[in-house]
Design goal:
six-stranded mixed sheet; four-stranded antiparallel sheet
Length: 222
């Protein structure tokens, strides 16, 4: 499903983020990626969605080499990858329904299709009763569930969760994590979760620790 071969990323300042990274993730895997700040976790997420490009190496997703992806193909790639961020990235002037619908609107989906899909994903994350609420009217957990709903609208093959529980209290974090885990298992989606939370990380099929831009199996976290 995802093959990362010899990927190196060095920023213009000379700061290395990833060094000769090799990683193979199978379809349906749940992989936790841990590591201290500055070890390349966020850079890896950005490269998976083609927001950043590696200096060397290749990244294949479903047999598609995205290393030199054209700007025209990026929207198609991002429909295969649902992304959940730590800071939710909701549009403050749009309702829950409108935030989710927006992900379909920018992809050019017809209004009829949008009216079908949005209520479905709201039911999945148990937020149908909050459809007309604005982000500031939601708890942190509800905002993150809205973000998860938004990530599901294209039925992506891969979910990338970048510190999805970082802004949540312990109980809410576990609830959001459990929802992500359940949904990806039900849909046989690949889940890649970047986290500082060792308790959540060790629930993955594999735990990888990024050290000096390279991934190592984190047996010590088990």
């Amino acid at each position: 499903m995802i093959k990362i071969k010899g990927v190196t990323k060095i920023y213009p300042t000379g700061t290395p983020a990833l060094r000769n990274l090799n990683l193979h993730i199978n379809a349906g895997d749940f992989v936790s990626i841990v590591g201290q700040s500055g070890t390349g976790k966020t850079t890896l997420v950005k490269m998976l969605i083609a927001e950043e490009r590696p200096n060397k190496g290749t990244i294949e997703i479903g047999g598609w080499d995205i290393t030199a992806i054209s700007s025209n193909d990026i929207p198609y790639l991002r429909r295969q990858i649902g992304v959940v961020f730590q800071d939710f990235k909701l549009l403050p002037q749009r309702t829950v329904y409108e935030n989710i619908a927006f992900a379909l609107e920018v992809a050019g989906e017809q209004r009829r299709r949008i009216h079908q899909v949005v209520p479905q994903v709201l039911e999945i994350v148990n937020l149908a009763h909050k459809a007309d609420s604005y982000p500031f009217q939601l708890s942190g957990g509800e905002q993150q569930r809205t973000a998860i709903a938004r990530s599901l609208v294209h039925r992506p093959k891969i979910i990338v969760a970048d510190e999805p529980t970082g802004n949540l209290d312990g109980q809410t974090a576990m609830e959001v994590f459990s929802l992500l885990q359940k949904l990806t298992k039900q849909r046989n989606q690949t889940l890649i979760m970047v986290t500082h939370n060792d308790e959540l990380a060790k629930k993955g099929d594999r735990v990888l620790r990024l050290i000096d831009g390279k991934a190592k199996i984190a047996d010590n976290i088990r």
